[in-house]
Design a protein that fits this description.
The protein is an all-alpha fold and about 260 residues long. Helices cover about 70% and strands about 0% of the residues.
């Protein structure tokens, strides 16, 4: 039976058994959310397949095995379920670790954790509407007069899913940089000073993503650079460390 999770404050003293019990309950809630999302995706599998196939503009992927349509559909629904249930999973993770933070640290963690699912969804939407169409157009039409181009369903859905998830995760750049700034590890001045190296790192990361063509690489590099610049602005505006270091009181001379 699933126990109701009671709110825990920073000052509460819990035993190891109580911590494990809370962790178990939150894992069960996350798994239930994932299972519910997976069931919803199975129910609406035709809609999900239609959405993923839409960038192909009427072309239908092919399958080469007896079990491939079934297994490919299950895999695609699993990816979609992860995307749908991610906000619930992130909330359970945040709620579990939040009591360990002091009140000042909690003021840092709360806005950052609220940004995580929003930025992830923004990254997935950006990848689907901006990155995927030109990337597929370039890849499928590249030297197509020399090949009989057929799209295998398993490979195509894996390519799309990994691209969407990768870009969604990369859109967490402002959260990571803002957290480092709020914790006093880096400063906006250092971020501006190292802008050239950041652009190089963004280009390397874009090259390591599942898409291999130059079009999608450019389309993935540009938002990473924009997100880095946005991170600098956010750090300058909201990146003051949560706890100010008290000024040192000067000692009288001669003592």
């Amino acid at each position: 039976m699933l126990k109701r999770i009671r709110p825990i404050s920073h000052d509460d003293q819990l035993t190891i058994v109580e911590h494990l019990d809370e962790l178990r309950t939150r894992i069960i809630v996350s798994l239930l959310a994932l299972a519910t999302a997976f069931g919803l995706c199975i129910w609406q599998k035709h809609l999900i397949l239609d959405i993923v196939n839409r960038p192909l503009h009427g072309r239908h992927p092919i399958t080469l095995g007896v079990t491939e349509p079934f297994m490919t559909t299950l895999t695609l629904c699993a990816y979609a379920a992860i995307v749908i249930s991610l906000p619930v999973v992130l909330y359970q993770l945040y709620a579990f670790v939040l009591p360990a933070f002091s009140p000042s640290e909690r003021r840092v963690a709360l806005p950052l954790m609220l940004m995580v699912p929003l930025l992830f969804i923004a990254g997935v939407v950006f990848a689907y509407y901006v990155v995927m169409p030109p990337a597929l157009k370039f890849l499928l039409n590249f030297n197509d007069h020399e090949f009989n181009v057929q799209i295998r369903a398993r490979d195509y859905y894996s390519f799309v899913s990994l691209t969407l998830l990768s870009v969604g995760i990369l859109f967490q750049v402002p959260v990571g940089i803002l957290a480092l700034t709020r914790l006093g590890i880096v400063t906006p001045r250092q971020l501006r000073k190292n802008r050239r190296y950041a652009i190089l790192v963004c280009t390397i990361i874009a090259a390591l993503l599942p898409s291999v063509d130059p079009v999608s690489m450019i389309l993935e590099t540009i938002p990473l650079i924009v997100l880095y610049e946005l991170s600098i602005l956010l750090s300058a505006a909201f990146g003051r460390p949560a706890t100010d270091v008290p000024e040192r009181v000067p000692q009288p001379e001669g003592l």
